[in-house]
Predict the structure of DUF3105 domain-containing protein.
Amino acid sequence: MGSANKTGSADRKARIEEMRRAERARQRRNRILTIAASAVVVGGLVVGGVVLIQSQTGDKAAAASDAKGASHAKSPGHFVTGADGVRTWKGTLGRTHTTKTVSYPMEPPVGGDHHPVWQNCNGDVYTKPVDSMNAVHSLEHGAVWVTYNSKAAKADVDALAAKVRKTPYTLMSPVEDQKDPIMLSAWAHQRTVTSASDPNVDKFLAEFVQGAQTPEPGAACTNGLGQ
């Protein structure tokens, strides 16, 4: 048993280190892309009239996309609870980027149309509520979102925060309207845990941090929105 635990721990550490290396590589690519984008913007200023026409066209397209996104967010569906206590959403989860407010059919949301900017989720702990639309984008990138309300014990909140800070592709924030004191969410999956020491916390993180459910595996969890 001890050998199996050590092996599992080593595998998890190796997985986390690999995600960190991938994150650093993405950050380097982002810097290069930012420089290239700046050059394109400078060139575009020379033809301002064309840019204006394209902008107006883009606004119309964005409005159509937003309207489409709102309908996707309201697609019917329901949770199915597995023998392990994990609830899996059975139904359509839109993935359209929108700046319009999205009404999610569950709290906290486990997917759906979302804001174009993700919430930073590289072990980020937020002491104030974050916008669900940004957090859903983080779930799309393979993050696990740890949430709690005022019924959660302070000791559990502190212990979970310490765990999140050590785990890439996670974030934590209060969600007062959720039905249970402590909940864990990934894209299309969610569960309640009884405390920070509940073994299901580690099981959920092991399965769903950059897990098979991730729509965009390897996408960034940094350079997004902080608090």
The longest strand covers residues 77-81. Helices lie at 2-45, 48-73, 132-140, 154-165, 199-208.
